[in-house]
């Protein structure tokens, strides 16, 4: 512990003996540092919050390709080069008659110092930072808020004007495109008409290309095949039912009350059985089985009645007549489907034969038809887009498509955001003092000297007999006091200059407020 204390005393003595070096180095570092800080202009920040609300009057599918403006596009529009150039001109950053290089420099400076940060879906915080060295702090503070005022005004005017201008330009562009497509469509129609006239008999009639007509005929033929199979099955079922149904039935006379009732019930049951078979019920159906059992019982009752029950005669069976009409209807359906199938088969064979015999003509006709279809689709799409753009333009004429509201106006900065000059001045002062002490201590290490006898003994390895204390005369004492006063004055002047710079900084800030 004693050795450490001695080392500290030795270091302190070495620095004190070079105190003028400490003061000179401190002054040099402080002067250079404070000059560097003074050359840094104060930066003033102004902030504002902006609400950009998009009025979605038209649905999304009627936006005509424009769609709802995206928020990132709004942010890019705020800091676009065109807007920055207008802001620079209105705030005086860009003098009248400036060349392109000066304009590019002003635009780049503003784009670098203006930050747009989205806080919510449609709320933006805009920050403007201004630090122009040729301007005073008051002018920089005023310019920071003025830049935001000008930017918001320019953006609002552009949005108010831009929507209507875009609609008019869009209509003009679409009209030109529609005229071009209409002209091309008429040329293709004329070429197709001339081609058909030159190849009469080689190109089948009908709309569409030969390949399209063959494809449509094959699709219809597949449907007709399935319908024909179903109709033929229904006709076969009707023929089977008709063959098992008698054309006439015997209706006995009303001889006695009991006998007439039994025969009438038997005739009714037989008619019901015929009706069931006409509906397609088979003999295995439970209702048919039950009705057959009932008919057998009624026949037994009718046989017991005998012939005395009264005379009777044959009459047309109504079930047979109904089945005959049904069979005729199904035969007509089968005939119609068969005729349509034959017609489609013939059309397919004829078109295929013509394509095989004249492949070049068919291919050219297909190409012309394909070209016509493509132009027609483009033409219809452009017409729909033009109508949508026209509607959107009318909406923007009646109302504002984008509503811009200033939530927080640009703030008026009263103190610089950067640099923190008081802190930097203090750090430079401490760095100057530390640099002076360090320089003195380093020089003491380079120039070897021995402040105590013990240190000399350790360094030389020889015993030190004794040491002679310095004798200070009155004249030398006065000289030391005078130099000490000069040293204190130099140190005090350094600290006073530091305090003066701090006071000047706060006075300058007060002038901004």
Topology at a glance:
Layout: H1 2-16, H2 19-38, E1 44-54, H3 71-78, H4 81-91, H5 100-113, E2 114-118, E3 123-130, H6 137-198, H7 210-243, E4 248-252, H8 257-278, H9 286-305, E5 312-316, H10 318-357, H11 359-398, E6 402-408, H12 421-446, H13 453-460, H14 474-512
Antiparallel strand pairs: 1-3, 1-6, 2-3, 4-5
Helix pairs in contact: 1-12, 2-12, 2-14, 4-5, 4-6, 6-11, 6-14, 7-10, 8-9, 8-10, 10-11, 12-14
Would you write up a description of this structure?
Keywords: Coiled coil, Membrane, Transmembrane, Transmembrane helix. This is Lipopolysaccharide biosynthesis protein. InterPro entries: Bact_polysacc_biosynth/exp (IPR050445), XrtA_polysacc_chain (IPR014345). The protein is of the alpha+beta class. Helix content is 70%, strand content 8%. It contains 14 helices and 6 strands. The strands form 2 sheets. A 4-stranded antiparallel β-sheet has the order 2-3-1-6. A two-stranded antiparallel sheet has the order 4-5. A hairpin with a 4-residue loop joins strand 2 and strand 3. Helix 1 crosses helix 12, helix 4 crosses helix 5 and helix 7 runs antiparallel to helix 10. The longest helix has 62 residues. It is elongated.
């Amino acid at each position: 512990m004693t050795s450490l204390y001695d080392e500290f005393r030795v270091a302190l003595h070495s620095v004190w003996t070079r105190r003028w070096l400490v003061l000179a180095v401190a002054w040099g570092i402080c002067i250079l540092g404070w000059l560097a800080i003074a050359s840094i202009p104060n930066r003033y920040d102004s902030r504002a919050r902006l609400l950009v609300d998009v009025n979605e009057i038209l649905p999304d599918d009627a936006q005509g390709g424009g769609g709802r403006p995206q928020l990132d596009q709004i942010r890019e529009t705020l800091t676009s080069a065109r807007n920055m150039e207008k802001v620079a001109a209105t705030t005086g950053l860009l003098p009248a008659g400036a060349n392109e290089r000066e304009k590019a420099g002003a635009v780049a400076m503003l784009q670098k110092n203006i930050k747009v940060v989205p806080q919510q879906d449609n709320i933006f915080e805009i920050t403007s930072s201004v630090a122009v060295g040729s301007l005073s702090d008051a002018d920089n503070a005023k310019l920071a808020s003025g830049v935001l005022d000008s930017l918001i005004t320019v953006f609002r005017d552009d949005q108010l004007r831009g929507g209507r201008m875009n609609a008019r330009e869009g209509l003009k562009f679409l009209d030109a495109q529609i005229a071009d497509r209409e002209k091309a469509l008429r040329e293709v129609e004329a070429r197709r008409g001339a081609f058909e006239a030159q190849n009469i008999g080689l190109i089948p009639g009908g709309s569409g290309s030969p390949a399209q007509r063959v494809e449509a005929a094959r699709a219809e033929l597949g449907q007709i095949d399935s319908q024909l199979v179903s109709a033929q099955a229904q006709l076969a079922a009707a023929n089977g039912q008709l063959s098992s149904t008698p054309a006439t039935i015997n209706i006995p006379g009303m001889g006695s009350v009991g006998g007439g009732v039994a025969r009438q019930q038997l005739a009714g049951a037989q008619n019901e059985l015929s009706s069931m078979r006409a509906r397609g019920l088979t003999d295995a159906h439970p209702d048919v089985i039950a009705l057959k059992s009932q008919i057998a019982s009624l026949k037994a009752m009718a046989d017991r009645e005998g012939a005395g029950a009264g005379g009777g005669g044959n009459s047309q069976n109504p079930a047979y007549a109904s089945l005959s009409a049904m069979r005729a209807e199904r035969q007509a359906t089968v005939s119609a489907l068969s005729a349509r199938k034959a017609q489609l088969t013939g059309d397919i064979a004829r078109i295929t034969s013509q394509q095989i015999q004249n492949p070049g003509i068919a291919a050219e006709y297909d190409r012309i038809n394909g070209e016509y279809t493509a132009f027609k689709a483009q033409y219809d799409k452009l017409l729909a887009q033009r109508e949508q753009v026209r509607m959107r333009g009318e909406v923007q004429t009646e109302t504002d498509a984008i509503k811009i509201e200033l939530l927080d106006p640009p703030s008026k900065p009263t103190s610089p955001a950067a640099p923190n000059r008081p802190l930097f001045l203090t750090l430079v002062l401490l760095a100057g003092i530390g640099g002076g002490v360090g320089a003195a201590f380093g020089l003491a290490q380079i120039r070897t000297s021995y402040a105590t006898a013990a240190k000399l003994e350790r360094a030389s390895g020889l015993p030190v007999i004794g040491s002679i204390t310095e004798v200070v005369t009155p004249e030398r004492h006065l000289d030391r006091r005078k130099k000490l006063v000069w040293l204190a004055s130099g140190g005090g002047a350094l600290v006073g200059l530091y305090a003066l710079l701090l006071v000047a900084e706060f006075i300058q800030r007060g002038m901004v407020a």
